[in-house]
Amino acid sequence: MINSFVELRQRAQSAGPKRVAVVVADDEIALTAAEEALNLGIAHILLIGNARRIREKVDAVLLTGGMAHSERVVRPLSEYIAWIAPISVYPGDDELRALSEGVFQVLDGHEQPKKLQPRPLTSPVLTV
Fold it and tell me: Residue 39's Cα: distance from chain center in Å?
């Protein structure tokens, strides 16, 4: 039985990230909750709502994981979502774990946040 939000968060983190569609994602509360779930590594977020208002809240789109190795996937996806925000591509595996560990390093005060510069889609890293 779960008796607190801390226990609920721990259970969600131990279960691993789930795909979550956030409807009316242009709402400030919904966006804040989605961001927190992403930062905790408990959700992959799909935002559904007013595109203009969502775009105002999104600083960047990160394409990560195994699929980011494939230019056949990255190029058309990037063309489709380029209107949202600048796109950065970080191919690799186990990316959610690495991203969440980095977030916790910042939240715990062990590291300062860094601003990453987007890589162009013609980067050699995309060559398959």
Answer: 8
